Amino acid sequence: MAELSPEELEDLLPGYVLEILDPDELALVEAALAGRPEYRARVLELQQAVTWLPYAAPEAPPLAPEVKPRTLARIRSERQRSLRRPAAPAPSAPTRSERLRRAFAVGWAPALAAACLVLALGLGVRLARVQRDLTAAQTALIAQQSQQAAEVARLTSALAQRDSDLARLTTQLAQAQAEAGQIQQQISLLTRANALVTLAPQPGAPASASARVYITDDQRALVVAQGLPTPRPGRVYELWGIGTAGPIPMGTYSVTPGNPTTWVVDPAISARDFSAFGVTEEPDGGSPTPTPPILLLGQRAS
Q: Which of 17, 188, 236, 292 sits a CA distance of 20 to 30 A from 224?
């Protein structure tokens, strides 16, 4: 005996519940159910659906009070009329086609209608399962999209942080390159210097304060100062070149306690015209003329 596939078994279950299968189909279904216990729950669902079919019809409204006496009167009238009517000839035997039509109307039509209802219920159950699976898939998809969105946000934040770090490192590199360029320039001036002017502390300056002005053949100047305290708020130290035209400002600088301060004088200012150099404390931005007292002072060798 051939076995039923799951699809064939599912199609025959409604007929099995309605008891309208032929013997061969019935035998196939029972054999399949014996080997597939998981379909017993499906049979139970269909049996329960058939049990509840009579209760699925809408409840009829109550009859009006005059319907009952009117109906009884009509029955009595029809009865009296039939008694007065001559006896009708005996009906002839129904033909084969009539017997088949009556059998279909009495037996098969209701069964087929019930089968259609059961099939509709089965389709409804399948649709509910499909809808449930679809809802679960949508929920999983939404969760996956949420995870992907969180991952995109994390990667975007990491990328922004990387860009910020890159910008910071680029700035630090530019600063380091600028400092390296300044150091290289200072080393070049020191190696080319052929004159040195030492600035000694004057009254009012710390005894450890000093400064050196290195001068090259082309009259470029490099200043190295140390020992001066941090200027007061809003004040800076200013270097002066002193010559026949009087004191000429040569630039301002700040100091770091404990460390020498080195800077290159503006190339536009030539040291050739100065016989002495001095340092004063001035307002931030410098002054056009020195403000006493002079803190450091040194004479250029003739």
A: 292
Positions in the chain whose pLDDT score sits under 70: 1-2, 52-63, 67-68, 72, 75-76, 78-80, 82-126, 302
The pLDDT value given to residue 96: 43
Type and span of the H or E element at 159: helix 109-192
Residue 150's pLDDT is 93
Strand partners, 296: 201, 279
152: left (phi over 0), alpha (psi -120 to 50) or beta: alpha
Whether cis (ω within 30° of 0) applies to the bond prior to 293 is yes
Helices (H) and strands (E) in the chain, counts: 6, 8
pTM above 0.70, yes or no: no
Quickly tell me which residue has 């946000």 as its tokens.
153
Helices (H), 36-95: 40-52, 67-84
Q: CA-to-CA distance for 139 and 131, rounded, in angstroms? A: 12
Please tell me the distance from the alpha carbon of residue 114 to that of residue 117, in angstroms, as a whole number.
5
**What pLDDT shows up at residue 103?**
41
Encoding tokens for residue 182?
């300044």
Residues ≥6 apart with Cβ < 8 Å to 215? 193, 194, 195, 196, 197, 221, 271, 300
Q: How far apart are CA 114 and CA 195, in angstroms?
A: 121
CB burial of residue 195 (10 Å; 0-12, 13-18, 19+): middle
